[in-house]
Amino acid sequence: MNFLSLLSQDGASAKIASQGAHVCSWIPAGGSEQLFMSKSSAFQDGVAIRGGVPVVFPQFSNQGTLPKHGFARTSEWKLLQTGLAEHGAAVAVYELRENIARLTIWPHVFRAQLRISILGNALQMALEVENTGDTNFSFTTALHTYLAVEDIANVSLHGLQGLHYRDTVSGADHCLEADPFLRISGETDRIYGYAPAQLELHQPHQRTIIRNNGFADAVVWNPGAGAAKINDMHAGGEQHMLCVEAATILRPLSLAPGESWGASQTLEIVSALD
Ligand SMILES: O=P(O)(O)OC[C@H]1O[C@H](O)[C@H](O)[C@@H](O)[C@@H]1O
Predict the structure, then answer these.
(1) What is the atom index within ligand 1 of the atom nearest the CA of 54?
(2) Which of 146, 184, 223, 257 counts the most CB atoms within 10 A of its CB?
(3) Which position among 22, 69, 144, 238 bears the catalytic label?
C-alpha cells in the first residue's frame, strides 16, 4: 500500500493511502489531527483501514451480496494527479475502474473518481461515479468519515432535528429525531434520510462544520461498548471517534450508460473562540 503526503501552501497536511484513496490523516493549517485512526488498524493490502475516510462503494454495509461496504475501500486506486491548485490548496485525484476481479462480483463497467483537497482549516472530498459501460447499474455509497474527538461524552452533533432515521441498532425505521442536538452515550448507528447541507459537531474547544453537497443521507456511527468486538479497534478507541458519514443509501442511485453522479463532503474546523 502506498501513501501520499499532501501539504498546502498554508501548512495544512494530509496522508492518503492508495488503497481505497483513503484519507488517513488530516491536520489543518496550524491545527491538530482531525481524523480518528485506530492504533490497531492493520494497514494490510486487501484489509479495510479502521479510521480516516473509507470510501464505501458500490454497496453500503451488508445491503447486498458484495463484501461489507463494497470493494472500493479494499481496492488499489490509481493516482491521476497531485499538486498545488488555486489559492495554494494541495490536491490529489484518484480513480478506480472495473477489473476482472471486480467484474466477477459486480458485473458493471464504471469509473469512480475521488478528488481530495486541503487548504487552511478545510478538507474537501468529492466523489464522482460514471457509468462507462452499456447497461444500467445502481449503487449505494458513502464517505465514511471517522472524526477524531477528545472525549465522546463532550460531543454534540447539531443539524439533525426533525429528520427521520433508520436505527440500525434496534432495527426500527422512520424514527424521528426530536432533539435539537445528538449526544452519544452508547452504541449509535443511524441512517438519516434527506441529510441537510450542513451539520456541526461541537466540542468544548472547537466546532467542526460538516458540509454535504449532493449526498442524500447522513450516517452517524459509534460502536459504544460493541467496540470490544471489533478486532482492529484499539481499547477505548470508541471514546475518541464519531463517524459522520455523507452517504446515499436509502434510495440507491441508478446510472444509465454515459451518465454520471457526483457529491462531496467538506470538513471545516472553527475554533470555539470564533
Ligand atoms: O466494521 P466496518 O465494516 O468498517 O463497518 C463499520 C460501520 O459502518 C457504518 O457506519 C455502518 O452504519 C455500521 O453498521 C458499521 O458497523
Answers:
(1) 4
(2) 146
(3) 144
* Total length of the chain: 274
> Of residues 22, 69, 130, 245, which has the active-site annotation?
245
pTM (two decimals): 0.98
Grid cell locating 179: 432533539
Cα separation, 218 vs 60, whole angstroms = 12
Give, using CA atoms, the residue closest to atom 3 of ligand 1. 68
Place of cell 455509497: 141
Measured in Å, residue 20 CA sits from the centre of ligand 1 at 16
Domains, the chain, ordered by start: 3-271 (2.70.98.10)
pLDDT in tens, 102-139: 999 999 999 999 999 999 999 999 999 999 999 999 99
ipTM confidence score: 0.98
